[in-house]
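Table 4 source record.
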Amino acid sequence: MITARLKDGSFCTASGLAAELGISLRSLTRDIQILRDQGVPIEADRGRGGGLRLDRRWGIGRLNLSYAQAVDLLISLAITEQMQSPLFMAHLGPVRRKLMASFSADTKSKVSGLKDRILISESASALLLTDFRNPSRDSVAKLHQAFLQMQEIEITYRAENGTVTRRKIQPHYLLLSYPIWYVLAWDHLRGEVRTFRCDRMGQIAALEMEFQLRPLSDFQAAIAGAQVI
């Protein structure tokens, strides 16, 4: 409670904080000392306008991410690098390396080539956007994880004519034609390379089967739009 209150960076007096938390000033003083003994850098400025607050730098490097959050962040970094924006790029390398350090050795080998599996093209046309809708968070999380781990997935897919089919695919590459994402995949139903719009995917279930990455040259026709469904 105390650290949460002090994290906003603004000063508050000890008496004011004690009243806000519903405890005595003596109890607050004791609790603050315990936190300091634990390494929490609580600053105290005396005099008019002074008070208590956390060191503004505290918490850097203490961010805890779940596996799914780390995967999403890693893919987001790869997307940013592929877009080659000159802004906000200076520290992406160190951030990526720190994220990779949290993965298993097997996952690290797959992550190493992640940037090359994400492609950026021109923005989507107005015609393509007529039936665009954002995919659900759950679907995005499952797709991201399967894409990173190179695992096959089973999906329900709505084609342009409204027909819904169930497909088992290998998500080899991601292609962004802003704001539409495509998965360049091997489709077991068709027995060939196909392109799937992420916003037309329904249910997604990860399968145990892993796959070996196909060369990008296998997908050139799909990228050109010849196999878009």
